Automatic annotation (TrEMBL):
Annotated source species: Lithocarpus litseifolius
InterPro entries in UniProt: CAT-like_dom_sf, Plant_Fungal_Acyltransferase
GO MF, one example: acyltransferase activity, transferring groups other than amino-acyl groups
Protein name in UniProt: Uncharacterized protein
Cited Pfam families: Transferase
Amino acid sequence: MGSIYQGPPSLLQDLKVTVHKSSLVFPSQETEKRTLFLSNIDQVLNFDVETIHFFSSHKDFSPKIVADKLKNTLAKILVPYDFFAGRLKLNPETSRLEIDCNAAGAGFVVASSEYTLDEIGDLVYPNPAFAQLVCKTSNFLKPGDQPLCIFQLTSFKCGGFAMGLSVNHTTLDGLSFKLFLNNLAALGHNKPLAVTLSHDRHLLASRLPPHVTFPHPELVQLKIPINKDSNPRLCSHPRRPCLQYFPADLGQHQQP
């Protein structure tokens, strides 16, 4: 038996979001000035990934308390995740992208919506209006000085809030991003990092110079000697493809 088609739910087209403050957050401690190598995979996956995380209201966490705590926690986690506060740059010698861990800061935006979470409705269905909950670029910065990570905290009239993140994929993949959120929550509770990660991308680098570690018989060029008993069609090199024209008169082949 078939099922009755249910169309998409009624969605708000405008969440009426107002941005109150945009700023940069810097590491809470001095970090090492270094350059982070990016693998060939990272060279290709150079784009921003946007995620939104909704939280219901809590009597002990007003929007201001949440904003202050998240901002302080972000400053703490920028110490072990120093590349989040860095900037992408092009190495002129290798023509490869790298992350300059220069502590230039991560983006932090505080905003509010005129709706409650209940008025927004289904939070799972992909609503195009949710794009208002993620800050894609920092308009107060130069185009070449864009953060690799931007947090936007949007509070709602009910006391709930949404945490929208825009993270460049060169910094983390999906699994590493999940572990990053676990570490962010741990530091927010004044606990040590939940998972200690290795940020050395040379583990994914290609060999320099390249070298073969095992035989590849499929690439071996066979040298077959040609003698008088050899079939020239089997031993000769294939001819280059060509196009030839032959004159023909179809009238001569017509049957009476």
